[in-house]
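Subgroup meeting minutes
Present: P.N., E.W., G.H.
Scribe: E.W.

1. P.N. recapped why we're keeping a running log of single-chain structure predictions: easier to compare across weeks, and new members can see raw inputs and outputs side by side.
2. G.H. added today's entry (169 aa).
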Amino acid sequence: MTTPSRYTFRTATLDDLALLKDWQSNRHVSAWWDTDTPYEAADLDNPLVRRWIVSTNNRSFAFIQDYTVHGWEDHHFAGLPKGSRGIDQFIGEPDMVGIGHGSAFIGQHMRSLFDAGAPVIATDPHPQNGRAIAVYTKLGFAPLGPRQDTTWGLILPMIAHPQTISTPL
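Output recorded in log:
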């Protein structure tokens, strides 16, 4: 198991576009992440979404983004309280999957969002992505309702509150 405090998060930049494209081409990412539209410069400038490259021991290995759930009129989380954040992420490096990094770095990022005042954090894995759902459940997320077909695809809406986060930091 990994130690959450070993993760650093730096803002994704134009210099990271090739890395993100490379990571998205890996089968374990492309199975669940839209690879038809790779990130572009305009994506990195969107003020509604903050994108991060995650590293441990000076090695970049993952991507996480957090966004305001109130930035789109038709967003499936628009009914959550003001200040709520949504998250999406993937581990890009295949040899870093399945050894505890996901729950550790996601938990660390969740804690920072809660510490900054987010009342709720939401996520929306594909209902068949059992690995992601297991990680989110371990971190204190619970389904917000049944699966839904949205503009962004088929999802299982899940939310976590500060008191339900189960990863000590």
